[in-house]
Every structure is written in structure tokens, then in C-alpha cells.
Task: structure prediction
Amino acid sequence: DVKVTQSSRYLVKRTGEKVFLECVQDMDHENMFWYRQDPGLGLRLIYFSYDVKMKEKGDIPEGYSVSREKKERFSLILESASTNQTSMYLCASSPPRAASYEQYFGPGTRLTVT
Amino acid sequence: DQQVKQNSPSLSVQEGRISILNCDYTNSMFDYFLWYKKYPAEGPTFLISISSIKDKNEDGRFTVFLNKSAKHLSLHIVPSQPGDSAVYFCAASVGGGADGLTFGKGTHLIIQP
Result:
């Protein structure tokens, strides 16, 4: 089974702090994604990556950056956390294009910024 | 502009009956559609999918129907069971999904005993 793990299930940070959310997948997937889920808004794509060192902006990249130094690891960085970044953050991975459309999700990190 | 719409925030169905969850989309470039199920405090799990070249896909109690001309898809769950109570997200992709999925806002399905 594909396993996507996220470093923390719950996180509380203060406004202005730099926050790192880590995601690791064990299926050698090329594609990795970061989404946030908010009530009434569904899942929205923040950033994604096709391969190591590569990154692409999703629909709501403002206030975030990412890092992919190794194939299995994709990090989401909040440079200066703000209260409107309080959310559930979900990491996902998928095999290469044309191999499968399905994305496998981690359990999520509930981030609260106070 | 929302490209994938789930207009029912919640749906209540009696156990044993059919649950029908609906989804509409506006982007005619979408060529693959997926349904995900999500329990509280867990990540979404893949349920069933359908390619735009098909109009129906079935997997056990779950069937997805696609009406391309109406840009509409639906998920049927028969018979509904208590464990089906969850939030269901409709998602769509273009060209394999490597650019990410576009999700609807979700429908909270409640199965009543």
C-alpha cells in the first residue's frame, strides 16, 4: 500500500513564525502536492512538484513556498505565518502522468496560527 | 470561478436506501473525474473514478455516472451503510492529473439508522 506521512497531526504556531510542514511518500512517486482544506471551500491546491528540485504554483500559492530536495520528500514552508493560514494541510502523491490519475493523501496536519 | 461544483453541502439518507451525490463542472478540458471520501481528522481516500470516454463505472456498491453534454456526474451508493457517513469530494483533472486535481467543496453524507 502507498503510504504518505506528514510530520505532525496538530501544530500550533504564533503569528510571524516560520513553519515547516513535512511530507514523505514511500512509493517512489514523481508527483507530489500540497493542498489546504477549509470548511465550505473544499481542497485547494497550493503547490505541486513533478520531480526533485521542480515546483509549480497551484491555485493559492501566496504566503507559501515549497522545497523538494529528495524524491520522497516535499516540504511546505510558511515564511511568516498568519492567522488566515490556520487550516488543514494535506499532502498527496501520484505516479507519473498516464500511469494513474489517482492521488494518495496523507492524514493531514491541522495548523492553528494564533 | 469555481470549476467543480457540489451544490449540496449535506445529504441525509436512511440506511439501506440509495445515496446520490451530484457534481457539476464547467471546464470542458477535464478528462478524468474522481470521488474521494473523507472522515474527520483523516486524509481523503480514493473511492472511484471515471474517464471522460465512459459514461458509467461501477465498483461494488459504488457507481459513478458521467453526462458529458450536461457536464454533470453523480455518485450512487447502494445500499447505504452507516460507515458511508463522511464528506465526499468530487474532483477533476486535465491530462492525467499531474498538475493537481480540482476539487468541489464537498457533500457531507449522513446515513441515518
User: Anything to note?
Assistant: Chain B has a mean pLDDT of 93. The first strand of chain B starts at residue 4 and ends at 5. The CA atoms of residues 30 and 94 of chain B lie 5 Å apart.
